[in-house]
Amino acid sequence: MKKILIWMMLLMPMAMIAxxxxxxxxxxxxxxxxxxxxxxxxxxTKYYTSTDINGLYILAKIPDGEYTxxxxxxxxxxxxxxxxxxxxxxxxVNARLSPSVETLKDVVVTGNRIEERKVExxxxxxxxxxxxxxxxxxxxxxxxxxQYMQVLPGVNSTGDQxxxxxxxxxxxxxxxxxxxxxxxxxxxxxxxxxxxFETDVILNANIYTGGFGAEYGGRLSSVxxxxxxxxxxxxxxxxxxxxxxxxxVILEGPLKKETADNPSAITYLVMAKNSYxxxxxxxxxxxxxxxxPYDFLDIYGKISLNSGSGSKLSLFGFRFDDQVLGFHxxxxxxxxxxxxxxxxALVTGTASVIDGxxxxxxxxxxxxxxxxxxxxxxxxxxxxxxxxxxxxxxNNLKVGISxxxxxxxxxxxxxxxxxxxxDENTSNISLYATYHMNKGKWLFDPGVRFIYYxxxxxxxxxxxxxxxxxxxxxxxxxxxxxFYSQILLDARSDNDIVNLFNGFLTGSSMLNLxxxxxxxxxxxxxxxxxxxxxxxxxxxxxxxxxxxxxxxKNFGQLLNMNPHQxxxxxxxAYNSGGVFEKPQYYLTDFVIEKGVATGxxxxxxxxxxxxxxxxxxxxxxxxRTDEVQTYNPHYDRRHTVNLLxxxxxxxxxxxxxxxxxxxxxxxxxxxxxxxxxxxxIGGTLSGxxxxxxxxxxxxxDELYGGRLPVYHxxxxxxxxxxxxxxxxxxxxxxxxxxxxNRNNLFYYDRLTSHRVDQLPLLVSLGVSVxx
Length: 771
Prior knowledge:
β36 and β37 form a beta hairpin. The protein is mainly β. Helices cover 5% and strands 54% of the residues. The chain has a 22-stranded antiparallel beta barrel. The protein has a 5-stranded mixed beta sheet with strand order 9-14-15-12-13. Strands 1, 4, 7 and 8 form a 4-stranded mixed beta sheet that branches.
């Protein structure tokens, strides 16, 4: 550990060489909040950059002279400042942007995204702001990032219920979710309309659907990196909302105010939201069979210390709870997640930024169903990292170290009555580096991550690369590739009636794994994948952008629960001579698999004045192969289409109408081949089968051999905003989910053949007051 810290400290002198530089922080004049992704340029020169997530920027390695610094962001007034550089000095230029008169209302930053894409490789990433999320139809009275992510290309969901997202052929556990740098193990609630994140406190969300850089690791498929904003630096404010689905409240303000003489500030932000659908659905939606038994409570708090020069320290904590009681009389399900941590950003006296995170979180989940077989899982631990970013002109080098340690506890019983348990501790440490090179029309982001899985004594070297060629002012070609690994694996039954339960297991030498896979020796528990992404971006007009990407994810080694297991290691029969004559796939708890995910994603965005339109199409293929069979997993959806439109009406855009239509081809599922009476005969050969009552048993057909019907749904909403005095706003909204009342199939009860559908037509009302 000492050697690693020394290695990082040796990199610091690279930034200490005297060089002319301009640095600063860009904030909103009204609230003091950071404005990320502003364009910062030196007029009539080649020097330009954009602010980071904390609103910080650095322009380095600039010759002596007098310059005009220009800072602009869509929806704000552009500012210019004169700057004189000489003798290798670093000049601090902070900026406060004021909203332009025409766009004091929420703005969409499409125009700024075009400029940003010319300075970043931006392959397979969507950067989402709160204003974009709020353009979604307000299902249940509020817009949510869970709803917005479902319209992103390459993202598939379980629908209205289930709360699971699958990104470009990756399973749920292969998605890394970060909240202010802290690992969150389950970001979505059981009702698929809501996440744990409150829209109004989101500063930015980066969604990487593949080919992500070396600063991220430990997952095979995708990354959700979500940052919350700080509290208001100028005054105490808040928001209270109430609707037919739930309620929410936000309080924020300064503990120490920012002033003209002293720009430092200490702020607080507290958020709470809940769902009371299990009660309100009986009143508002009595026609729903079984009601809507979904309840949750989310609490998040944050204190931020801002220096005024860009450096900051934030402390945060959270608790998220979710429960489903009496789900169609077959299951009770609940999970909770709590944690705390802190992050910091330090702008040094030279052209460098140091940032880091340390956090702890714990997640537990349990499911009780008619099988009376225990299903529970728990994972808890810490993650920490520290990064140093050095700037050299339009280029920069970022190096870092990260550590994770966690414990997993797991208890499960498969369809053959064989129990599976794990109580495991594991840790890993990573070193990584990325270098951003701007060569005019060429952008390169090479990187490498070295990760050491300490509990397995297994090191992995993971090179990464993304690149972009700016062919013309309107056309950009891009590419990304990389190697990825993880040791967490999904623990779920492929035959569950409702797959609400998703447990966490750790790959370790203690797992009951086969020694061979198709006659190849298995020497590692680490799961591995390689990504390759290629695409083009084209700006048809200043208001119409298009993006197309093709991708390949090769899963070289995966671990999965064994659907073929017939014998338990604790069973005396397991140790009989005859058992060892059976194939391994009848004996082991887990199987080794290989997989591949390929596809094509297309998106179009049109944004002008009062109209915003977003359209996406995705074509995907996902395939897995174990020792017995090749199959399509349950999230293999062939075609996905999403259309989103928002239109503002009124002199001050006080009316907003929005609609969303979604279409998805059918998911695979395992058919029921037949049922039988399962007699235990007293557990012995001497049992009397003539007077014993058995349980209903199920014969399963080919794994995922069937396909569900297509899914499609139309949602509409209308919002009206009223100004109350100079600082308060009243928002009223009405929304309709599944407007034409499509009977989208959720599942069939295998024992009763009772059909259960997704959500029917739901009309909801909501009101919120900001003050």
